From TrEMBL:
Membrane topology, record value: Multi-pass membrane protein
Name of the molecule in the record: SusC/RagA family TonB-linked outer membrane protein
GO cellular component: cell outer membrane
Entry-linked Pfam families: CarbopepD_reg_2, Plug, TonB_dep_Rec_b-barrel
Keywords for the protein's UniProt record, in alphabetical order: Cell outer membrane, Membrane, TonB box, Transmembrane, Transmembrane beta strand, Transport
Keyword presence, Protein transport: no
Keyword Transmembrane helix: no
Major localisation: membrane
InterPro entries: Beta-barrel_TonB (IPR000531), Beta-barrel_TonB_sf (IPR036942), CarboxyPept-like_regulatory (IPR008969), Plug_dom (IPR012910), Plug_dom_sf (IPR037066), TonB-dep_OMP_SusC/RagA (IPR023996), TonB-dep_OMP_SusC/RagA_CS (IPR023997), TonB-dep_rcpt-like (IPR039426)
Compartments where found: Cell outer membrane
Transmembrane portions of the chain: none
Similarity remark: Belongs to the TonB-dependent receptor family.
């Protein structure tokens, strides 16, 4: 069956926020557009038509071109009518339809601009015994279906539903009669009458009758004609589960797409320095904004373009694949559809149990720390003649007065060693410390249950000439921390208008506004409860919140220097006294004109303009730790008064503001051509595209800022003098001058002022593609594109390098020798090869200089050469070969696809070593090569197919992704092991290779006991292997999964639904829970629980010694050693969703066509994790928080 219906041309994504002029224009559009919904739905039009011996289908297509009316019919019905001839001039539509349908046994009915072709119906021959049935027909979304044929089985008695889906039918008063409901694209449904006189029918889509259309952004292509690898996800599938953003919803739905770690990658990583994320296209044009800004409720379909034949039309932005999003359009003419969704998500409280987080609890750490400090004060220096016990105690006391970080256990042992407290008092203090649980106290005061709410309202309506969509989405999240909150608003309007028979205009505006409040920047204050010792008390003796001291903050036992601010901080107050507020606004304006030049030829112009701005303000009050740090850092002694004076304002805090903005535009002009003659069909597009991107910004700093008084004292500050003060001679921390530049001037003052350099790029492109189809069986495809950019092309031969693709397809199911296979609905073989490109904007073909600040001596601008010229710079290229199979069997009950691909990246950007005489040691150039090859499998199967909406159904969709990744060519100048661990690219190995130091056990030699050893050259061992050659390293695997499997199950019965998604990630490794050496300062934060099994002379474990047997040197090897390398395979249930659609007889009583309720569980405990340490590979620690979503959907 086929529905002859044009799709709306409207394309874009939009919103309006805080712009009065835009709001006024939007109001005018809505007023005009929605007011036409109830306008005149039919006007008499004079038509002329002359055809000879053609099918009714061809007649209807010509009538659609002249009138705009859409025809709904069954192909089977029309095939029985034969050919017709019509020659009529200046007649109305009714006259022409009467002639066309004469002697065919068919008739028509006009329903709101839709002409429904159906058999002629008659009433029963015996009217004396009859009943009248009434009812309505809707789809599963609750939308009325006009034009549904309702036929009394075994007779010609029937009717067609009206524009609201309602019908009235008189039938004989007999038991066991059956009504047959049929509609284009829907499964035929039979209902046996058993006394009911009011019927509510819900029809389900019949995928076997739907001609799937793939949207590439530049054009719409029928699946039968597509030679590329594409996966399409409909809005119905997306609505099976709720996720805050699109990427999470695509997880495990698209074979070849990895969302591991929240980072979307299609068909493996194909670049080292360039962009690796797929290009996002919304309603036909690429967008510069984040994919997270898309409204998940307003997506009609998602098409993921994976190979060159599907994506090469995007040229130099296509190497990483394309995600094409089409937003929803108005559904029903003559009425306004209103949909409302509300969701609330509750997250589990964060698990702060120390053992669950692989950490010692307070009792365990106090015990181990006490063993160490007993050794430190009484035995550590027994063999050192230059040290005595009194000297040890004296030095420790000096550390306290110098402001070193001192933990309570250490201080208690110091007091005991100094004779200030006895052993019993020491034991009491340690016992009290063992009872503390800092993480739990932190969670009780700082954390709160995270709650996220989202609300969506959409209004859609259309008439003969206008189509309007207004969607408003609001999301709020308390972020699970006090004094934190985020609000997000997305407003989108899209409309289209038939300005003339030959001209359609589409226009949209989308605005996103985000407001985020969170803790400000302070390197000394950490919001991780595990960064503080577990035995630390959160409260003072009186119950108030205690001050904490971090590195370079001093300690609670030191005497405060006269005139200096105490740098202890109260976490609860600090969250209020130092806040960052981010305000972000993004606007996107889109216009589109479609010119219908002659039949088969159209011209289209599109323009999109995006502007975004972000304003980040950090306000630290006078009481904040950051403001007190600045004040202390820039204090100096007055030589006359011998008192401290301050070089920064004594009162007030600071206000640091960073403003960035971006302006982006894309203009496109395109010709579209289609023609069918005999068994031949040609479709082609050609166009030009131009694009510009520009970003810039500025930063400002206000000192002595008082928010209440709106006053400041920045003008009193001599920043030149402050910049020259590298160390404070008066502010002593850890026995040495406070490093002002490192911890005060650079992070707070210098970084708070200046400009964000402007970056502007321009691009130009020309493109063409064409598809030839013969007899609906054989497809030949080709595309060509040339891209130009201002960052490449110093050498003319690298300007505008061509990017292209070719593809062939065979629709085997249309072959005559396969037509008798009733179980085969669709079988297509595909092959494609093509070249796509990628951009790295961190390199340029010209020598570049970076400007700096004004020189304080010359008062002239300063600039430095930052990169040498590279005339050979060019696009990265990916050459992809793809062989694919698409199938649908048993009325599409079994369906899916299978693809094998090889994607080879050439001219990949990577660093190369330069001759030092050039003035540069290295630069990034097109010198590397990468290959990805893999298999993608998608299978869908309907275990049970319902006869109606309330029947039982069970559908399973399985996706399997396997990708093998290898660097074919790269120069890695690494000579030391540490260099290769840091930059892991090596020929013959994966892009994200893991290189591990080979753990050789724990040293038990005198003076070296407890230290980790690693194998180095010639089989020797060393405590420090980082400076050894790269040959000492062991390849540990790769960090990105090789295999991804997703299995989505959907079960429905009687309005109830159950869905669950299983995900498997495997074939990869991870470094986790490193067994690092434990030093004296390590006791200031929780130790890993593995140290309960640390090495001792009696316990020869693989865990470094602590306390008396602690290491004397620190190496980075422990973080990437073989003894902390784990398998990262896991199997999880990602979501479990339970839904219920209320019966229509209940919803209609309140004037609502559909009410759906939903409950969803996200991220429950993993079903299986391969590593035996219980480490969650997605967090490298404890499992992700589970969350619970409650939602309601209403349709009016």
């Amino acid at each position: 069956m086929k529905k002859n219906q044009e799709s709306d041309v409207g394309k874009a994504s939009g919103v309006v926020w805080k712009m009065w002029l835009t709001m006024k224009l939007l109001f005018c559009f809505l007023l005009i557009g929605f007011s036409t919904v109830y306008g005149n739905a039919f006007s008499q039009v004079k038509i002329s038509i002359s055809v000879n011996e053609v099918s009714l289908q061809e007649v209807f297509e010509k009538l659609t071109e002249q009138t705009g009316y859409h025809f709904v019919y069954s192909n089977e019905m029309l095939q029985r009518t034969g050919k017709v001839s019509v020659d009529m001039q200046d007649c109305d539509l009714g006259q022409i339809m009467a002639v066309c349908l004469k002697n065919t046994g068919l008739w028509y009915r006009l329903e709101d601009n839709i002409i429904v072709i159906s058999p002629k119906f008659r009433q029963p021959d015996v009217p004396q015994k009859k009943i009248t049935l009434t009812g309505n027909v809707k789809d599963k979304e609750g939308r009325p279906l006009p034009g549904v044929t309702i036929l009394l089985k075994g007779s010609a008695v029937g009717v067609v539903s009206d524009v609201d889906g309602n019908f009235t039918l008189t039938v004989p008063e007999e038991s066991g009669l059956t009504l047959v409901f049929s509609f284009v694209g829907m499964k035929t449904q039979e209902v046996v009458l058993s006394g009911q006189q009011v019927l509510h029918i819900v029809m389900l889509e019949d995928v076997s009758q739907m001609e799937e259309v793939i949207v590439t952004g530049y054009q719409e292509v029928k699946k039968e004609k597509m030679t590329g690898a594409v996966t399409t996800i409909s809005s119905e599938k997306l609505s099976d589960r709720y996720t805050p953003n699109l990427i999470q919803n695509l997880e495990a739905r698209v074979a070849g797409l990895s969302t591991y770690g929240g980072k979307p990658i299609i068909r493996g990583t194909g670049t080292l320095y360039g962009e690796s994320a797929p290009l996002l296209v919304v309603d036909g044009l690429p967008v510069e904004g984040s994919i997270e800004d898309l409204n998940p409720y307003d997506i009609a379909s998602v098409n993921v373009l994976k190979d060159a034949a599907a994506s090469a039309i995007y040229g130099a932005r296509a190497a990483n694949g394309i995600i094409v999003v089409t937003t929803k359009n108005a559904r029903n003419k003559g009425k306004i559809d209103i949909d409302f969704q509300a969701n609330i998500t509750l997250y589990e409280n964060k698990n702060v149990d120390y053992h669950d987080n692989f950490l010692m609890n307070a009792e365990e750490q106090v015990e181990r720390a006490s063993e160490y400090y007993d050794y430190y004060f009484n035995r550590k220096y027994a063999d050192d003649p230059s040290m005595t016990r009194d000297k040890v105690i004296e030095n420790f006391g000096k550390n306290i007065t110098d402001g070193a970080q001192i933990n309570p256990v250490a201080y208690a042992w110091y007091q005991h060693a100094a004779g200030n407290i006895g052993r019993s008092e020491l034991d009491n203090i340690l016992a009290d410390l063992s009872k503390n649980n800092f993480a739990q106290d932190f969670a009780d005061n700082i954390y709160r249950r995270q709650v996220m709410q989202q609300y969506n309202l959409s209004l859609r309506g259309s008439s003969d000439k206008f189509r309007n969509n207004l969607v408003i989405n609001y999301r709020t999240d308390n972020m699970g921390i006090i004094e934190h909150k985020s609000n997000w608003l997305n407003v989108y309007y899209k409309g289209s208008c038939d300005l003339a028979k030959w001209l359609v205009a589409t226009f949209s505006v989308n605005g996103v506004y985000a407001n985020i409040k969170q803790y400000g920047n302070d390197y000394n204050v950490n919001l991780d409860p595990f960064s503080y010792a577990q035995y630390q008390s959160f409260y003072n003796a009186d119950g108030s919140v205690k001050k904490l001291y971090s590195w370079y903050c001093g300690n609670e036992y030191m005497p405060l220097q006269e005139g200096m601010e105490d740098l202890g901080f109260n976490l609860v107050d600090e969250l209020r006294d130092n806040q960052t507020k981010t305000r972000r606004q993004e606007m996107r304006y889109h216009g589109d004109l479609l010119f219908k030049i002659i039949p088969g030829l159209t011209a289209q112009t599109q323009f999109v303009y995006e502007v975004n701005s972000q304003n980040v303000q950090q306000h630290a009050t006078q009481e904040s730790h950051a403001a007190r740090t600045i004040k202390n850092a820039y204090a100096k002694m007055d030589t006359e008064s011998h008192k401290l004076v301050y070089m920064t304002p004594e009162t007030g805090g600071f206000l640091q503001t960073t403003h960035t903005s971006g302006n982006f535009w894309t203009a496109r002009g395109q010709l579209n051509y289609t023609n069918t003659f005999g068994k031949h069909e040609i479709s082609a597009i050609a166009g030009l595209e131009f694009r510009e991107t520009k970003t810039s910004g500025d930063k400002s700093l206000v000192l002595g800022y008082d928010e209440q008084l709106q006053s400041s004292a920045t003008h009193t500050v001599d920043f030149g003098t402050l910049s020259q003060m590298s160390n404070s001679p008066y502010f002593q921390m850890n026995g040495s001058p406070f490093p002002c530049n490192q911890f005060a001037f650079t992070p707070y003052l210098e970084n708070g002022m200046g400009i964000v350099k402007e970056v502007r790029h321009r691009y130009g492109s020309g493109y063409f593609n064409a598809t030839y189809t013969y007899d609906n069986k054989y497809n030949i495809f080709g595309s060509f594109r040339k891209d130009y950019a201002d960052i490449y092309g110093l050498d003319a031969k690298f300007r505008g390098r061509p990017l292209w693709s070719v593809g062939i397809g065979w629709n085997a199911h249309n072959e005559s020798f396969l037509r008798d296979l009733s179980w085969m609905d669709f079988l297509k073989l595909r092959f494609s090869y093509g070249v796509t490109g990628n951009i790295y904007q961190g390199a340029t073909s010209h020598m570049t200089a970076s400007s700096g600040d004004i020189n304080s001596t010359t008062n002239l601008p300063v600039a430095s050469i930052s990169s040498p010229a590279n005339p050979d710079l060019r696009w990265e290229q990916n050459r992809t070969t793809n062989v694919g199979l698409d199938y649908g069997f048993m009325s599409y009950r079994l369906r899916g696809s299978l693809d094998y691909y090889v994607k080879t990246g050439k001219d990949i950007f990577a660093p190369i070593t330069l001759d030092p005489t050039t003035g540069f040691s290295s630069m990034v150039a097109n010198v590397a090569s990468i290959r990805n090859n893999g298999i993608e499998l998608a299978i869908g199967y309907d275990w049970f197919v319902p006869g109606n909406r309330r029947g039982f159904s069970w559908t399973t969709n399985l996706t399997v992704t396997y990708n093998k990744n290898k660097v074919l060519e790269v120069e890695n100048p690494a000579t030391r092991a540490y260099d290769l661990v840091s930059l892991p690219y090596k020929t013959g190995y994966p892009v994200n290779a893991l290189w591990a130091y080979r753990f050789a056990g724990i040293d038990d030699r005198p003076g070296l006991v407890g230290q980790s050893m690693y194998y180095v050259e010639n089989g020797n061992t060393s405590h420090n292997a980082s400076s050894a050659s790269v040959d000492v390293l062991e390849f540990g695997g790769q960090s990105d999964p090789k295999a991804i499997v997703g299995m989505d199950n959907q079960l429905r019965w009687n309005g109830l639904s159950l869905g669950f998604l299983l995900v498997y990630y495997g074939g990869h490794k991870m470094f986790a829970q490193p067994k690092s050496e434990v030093f004296e300062s390590s006791w200031d934060s929780p130790l890993n629980i593995v140290y309960l099994n640390s090495w001792t002379p009696e316990n020869h474990s693989d865990v470094p010694g602590i306390g008396e047997y602690a290491s004397t040197s620190l190496g980075s090897e422990c973080r990437t050693a073989t003894n902390c390398l784990y398998d990262a395979d896991f199997l999880k249930i990602r979501n479990i969703t339970i839904g219920y659609d209320l019966p229509e007889h209940l919803t209609e009583k309140v004037g609502i066509s559909k009410i759906s309720l939903r409950f969803q569980i996200n991220d429950p405990k993993a079903l299986w994790i391969k590593n035996n340490a219980g480490i969650d590979p997605e967090t490298l620690g404890i499992r992700k928080q589970a969350s619970y979503m409650f939602g309601v959907n209403l349709s009016l």
